[in-house]
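Supplementary Note 2. Why include the ligand at all?

Several targets in our set were suspected to adopt different conformations when bound, so apo predictions alone were not considered sufficient. For every target with a known small-molecule partner we therefore ran a joint prediction. The input for zinc ion is given below.
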Amino acid sequence: MNFKKSFKYLLKPRKVEKTFFNQFSGGKRWIFNWGLDQRKESWENEKKRISLFDQNNELVYLKKREDLAWLKNIHSQVLQQSLNDLDRAFVNFFNGLKKNIQIGYPKFKCKGEKDSFRYPQGVKVKEDKVWLPKIGWIKFKKTREVEGVIKQTTIIKERDNWYVVFSCEIEKEEPKVNIDPEKTLGIDLGLKYFANLAIGKENHFVTIENPKYLKKALKKLQFLSKELSKKNKGGKNRYKARKKLSNLHCYLKNLRLDFFHKLALMIVKSHDIIGVEKMNIKAMMRGLKTLSRAISDAAWGMFLSCLKNKALEYGKNLYEVSSFLESTRLCSNCGKKNEMKLGQSKYICECGQNIDRDLNAAINIKNLAVGASV
Ligand SMILES: [Zn+2]
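The joint prediction is reproduced in token form.
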């Protein structure tokens, strides 16, 4: 099983190396803007689309131009990566058009704005030094070991410092677990609460609410979306409203990620077997009817991928349980299926079971996970 992890370190470049960094990130920016300009021109004048393949080929000729001789100093992979980025920006933009999602047209990059460049390969690490092709060995502040295989290396400037970020792929052995019933947990994701947990042998019931600051932001999100829908199409006010909304989306996403990381860490650290319902099926079956549901679904997906990564990292067993098993209808005590009405908050069965509806679902999910792990 593989998972991805990034390792970021402060670089200690000498003056000459800083010059290289500036040159490389400048070259990356230049080629991005060149590529964007070429694509725009070609479309506006000839209604012709230029592909990544074409632009990569043209790179060879660009380097032969006398006025662009300086391009030769920059590693070709760095330049190609920049053209890849441009291509991805266009793919995202066109996909957005198809799906009716607002994704901006690729923009020209300005100097000083996210100075960075990246290598897909060829980078080596030895003790506290990193080898960057066409630049050389650079010292960095090694605060921890780099794990796994380096798949990509990014050099990035933040404020006045340069950092190196290794994006690694780590392989972890599938762990064998002696099941400790106390360390089992089932998660039922819901609308009323963000998650309902059934923990351990005694099925201790814990509900996780969205934090207050998230709730507030969600309310504001709903308000702003309504405002946006009232504005006239193409108007300046609509543009402003959309900008406000997208800023809030971004802010909310970061808040959520932070909350998810903490929650996932808490769950994974103290449990060995974790059950959760497969979300994609659930979402498909229900359909996206309202904004709040759409938001919840997106959030569940984000949380699940966060949880999966953490479980892999800590070597814990996470089981995605199929929702066709109808965790809501199944009695977690005797296994009988009972009809459940939408508003019904208690699960009552003729076997004597009488518990919270969400707890019943979470126990079913936990039991299935435990069953799958034996
Ligand atoms: Zn029962």
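The first strand starts at residue 2 and ends at 12. The chain has eight helices and 14 strands. Comparable summaries for the other entries are listed in the accompanying table.
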